[in-house]
Structure formats: structure tokens, C-alpha cells
Amino acid sequence: QVQLVESGGGLVQAGGSLRLSCAASGRTFSSYAMGWFRQAPGKEREFVAAISWSGGSTYYADSVKGRFTISRDNAKNTVYLQINSLKPEDTAVYYCAAAEGQFGGWVTKAHGYDYWGQGTQVTVSS
């Protein structure tokens, strides 16, 4: 099993920024593709961003393109999500996830991931 712990969430004003972190342990972090998902109350969990095991490929949901940046530091066993120009609709619990497979169409689907963190709350006020 892989353990994932998110941090960096908080309450911010619209237009502000946050940097979320996901620290991994239990297995070799660099061998996994990583993703970020989010879930607002009463809504389905939705894909946000993904990054390949090497960091060479990224993929973003249309709703966050140009505002969010996913990155990873394999030496630190950590994946990041830089969130800029926050909007109230970005309010959600943000989850990181790890997948044993390589990049494919599955990276945008929650069922494509094998391990999940507990989430960190991001709240954006208007």
C-alpha cells in the first residue's frame, strides 16, 4: 500500500493562491503516476490534474487550465498543486491519488487510481 497525506489547504479570498502538497510513503513514489481530484459537498469527485511518473507529461481539467499547475519532486516523495486565481467554485476537498499504471485515458477517472489521501479542504470566499 501507498500512504498519501495532503496539506496546504485553507480559507482564501477569490483571486488568491494556494499550494497543496501530497506526501507519499510506503512504496517507491517515482514509479507512480499522480493525480489531484476534488469533491464539493453534494457533488461527484472530479478530476483536476495528473502528472506522469517522470513528470514529463501533465494533464488538466478544462476548468483549471491556466490557473493550476501540477508538479512533483520524486526526491522528496511529494506532488504539488499550485492553485492561482482561485474562484469560489474551486471550493472543495482536494485529494491526491497514485496510480500504478502509466499515462492513458484512465488518468482523468477516479477508478483509474489505486491509492488515495484523506484530502485537504480548500475554501474560497467571494
Secondary-structure blueprint of this entry?
Elements: E1 3-7, E2 10-13, E3 18-25, E4 33-39, E5 46-51, E6 58-60, E7 68-73, E8 78-83, E9 92-99, E10 115-116, E11 120-125
Parallel strand pairs: 2-11
Antiparallel strand pairs: 1-3, 3-8, 4-5, 4-9, 5-6, 7-8, 9-10, 9-11
Structure characterization notes:
The mean pLDDT is 93. The protein is built from no helices and eleven strands. Strand 4 and strand 5 (46-51) form a beta hairpin. It starts with a strand and ends with a strand. The strands form two sheets. Strands 2, 4, 5, 6, 9, 10 and 11 form a seven-stranded mixed sheet that branches. The protein has a four-stranded antiparallel sheet with strand order 1-3-8-7, with no helix packed on it. With 126 residues, it is mainly β. The relative contact order is 0.31.
Quick recap:
By secondary structure, the protein is an all-beta fold. Helix content is 0%, strand content 48%. It has strands spanning 3-7, 10-13, 18-25, 33-39, 46-51, 58-60, 68-73, 78-83, 92-99, 115-116, 120-125.
